[in-house]
Specification:
transmembrane; cell inner membrane; mainly alpha; single chain
Length: 468
């Protein structure tokens, strides 16, 4: 075990990519100890990516890329501006609400930061906000992407932990609302302290229009239910209601109804059993293509090709990490790492609170150094057996793990969101990290609440019958 982990850490220190470090450490271990034939190692690596849930990975990545080029981000921003722009610290509140909506489409923090974050930072700077405030609130709100469904890390975690991806998606909704509320409260406090005013005058017509669009979107599932009650099949009811909504949107030219429909279709479809989380990823891509090519006509074949190639590049990197992590995690199991960690924790304490405190500290440290997908792939086989001994639900552990790793994306030395925002805002990485620091407070408060009040995570999937 020391050879496996030691060589992995040494390769990371000398600058090897995470996937390469895991693969080389695994091959070195196999070469020295001969614990399995070469063909077994190869089969383990292939089995790591030979999984139906993993089909969702390229589709969610593609959906996020397509949303960024389909003109959806601008419409979401305008909608959020109409809804909360009149509040104190208006554009900071817009930043948060925009991220909540966009997270229902992309499923990744990087897509959020690079997509709608670009618009939000520029708008806040143009309205006189300090660039540090713009970067800080954008970074904090970007962590919402993988917490609200759909979520790429939840797909990877569900596969590694053999947990229900649908239950994970539903479990993220209330924690996401808690995080959003805490961030908006933080903006309100900062606005009072630094004298931030509203950025748009209060306009009842604009606000009423935004609420009307929300009501129209929420009426969609109600209309589907009524059509089903009238005797139509589920498929016919969905297509009929969606067709009427598209026709009305074309006639009235509502600003954000079609963009807001994306999370409703995905979450509603999974809740009602219309499609699995993997199929939801395909639905997200089809809806993105419809918006970009048909409804808004902002997508060209050149930009579509670019989004496709970006998706191929990102997917290849993600699946390479998963492949290398599969053999690495298997060897950790073979070397009894999970058992040793379990025995150590039980020798330390039999209290699940103490265990979760140790896990949070471990994840925060690991998240600062490892890519999210790699961290999930390595840590889940170690943590899952221990969590089971403490009676911690795998879905609850998945939310805790994901939120910790999202905070890790904001911290040096490997925080990808940190580097993306540094480039967008044209600031040094050090200055960007300092700008993000105050916005860690609502994230840590949310982490404490989600960790030690399991009902925040488990109530909704339990009510929906996804877990017992």
């Amino acid at each position: 075990m020391l050879l496996l982990i030691g060589s992995f850490l040494l390769l990371l220190v000398i600058g090897a990519p995470v996937a390469v470090a895991m693969a080389v450490a695994s091959l070195l271990y196999l070469g020295i100890y001969d614990v399995a034939p070469d063909i077994i190692a190869a089969q383990r690596m292939i089995a790591g990516v030979e999984s139906f849930p993993l089909i969702a990975v390229p589709f969610f990545i593609l959906a996020g890329n397509l949303m960024n080029i389909a003109g959806v981000t601008g419409r979401i921003y305008h909608f959020a501006l109409s809804l909360v722009g009149w509040m104190k610290g208006g554009l900071a509140q817009v930043n948060i609400i925009g991220s909540v909506i966009f997270s229902g489409m992309s499923g990744t923090a990087l897509a959020d930061a690079a997509g709608i974050g670009t618009i939000e930072i520029k708008a806040m700077k143009d309205h006189g906000y300090p660039v540090e405030a713009a970067v800080g609130v954008t970074a904090a709100s970007a962590t919402l992407g993988p917490i609200f469904p759909p979520s790429l890390p939840f797909v990877i975690y569900g596969m590694m932990a053999n947990a229900s991806i649908g239950a994970l998606f539903m479990a993220g909704i209330i924690p996401g609302i808690v995080m959003t509320s805490l961030m908006m409260l933080t903006v309100w406090i900062f606005a009072r302290r630094y004298g931030w005013g509203s950025d748009t005058p209060f306009d009842f017509r604009e606000l009423a229009g935004a609420f009307l669009e929300v009501i129209i979107v929420l009426c969609f599932p109600l209309s589907v239910w009524l059509l089903i009650q009238a005797g139509l099949s589920v498929n016919i009811a969905v297509f009929l209601a969606l067709g009427v909504l598209i026709a009305l949107d074309w006639y009235f030219d509502w600003h954000a109804v079609m963009a807001l429909m994306a999370p409703v279709l995905l979450i509603g479809g999974m809740t009602m059993g219309w499609f699995t989380p993997t199929e939801a990823a395909v639905a997200a891509v089809l809806w993105s293509l419809f918006l970009g090519l048909v409804r808004y006509r902002t997508m060209t074949f050149r930009t579509l090709a670019k989004a496709s190639f970006d998706t191929i590049e990102t997917t290849a990197a993600v699946l390479f990490i998963v492949t290398a992590a599969s053999i690495f995690a298997w060897l950790l199991t073979v070397s009894q790492a999970a058992q040793l960690f379990s025995d150590f924790m039980f020798g330390l304490t039999d209290n699940w609170w103490t265990f979760l405190i140790v896990v949070n500290i471990l994840l925060l440290v690991v998240g600062a150094f490892l890519d999210t997908i790699a961290a999930i792939s390595i840590l889940v086989p170690i943590l899952m057996p221990v969590a089971a001994r403490y009676g911690i639900d795998p879905v609850h552990l998945g939310i805790i793990l994901t939120l910790n790793l999202m905070i890790g994306l904001l911290t040096p030395p490997v925080g990808m969101v940190l580097f993306v925002l540094s480039r967008i805002a044209k600031m040094s990485v050090e200055r960007t990290a300092l700008a993000i620091l105050p916005w860690m407070i609502p994230l840590f408060v949310a982490l404490l609440l989600i960790t030690f009040i399991p009902a925040i995570t488990l109530w909704l999937p339990t009510q929906l019958g996804l877990i017992r």
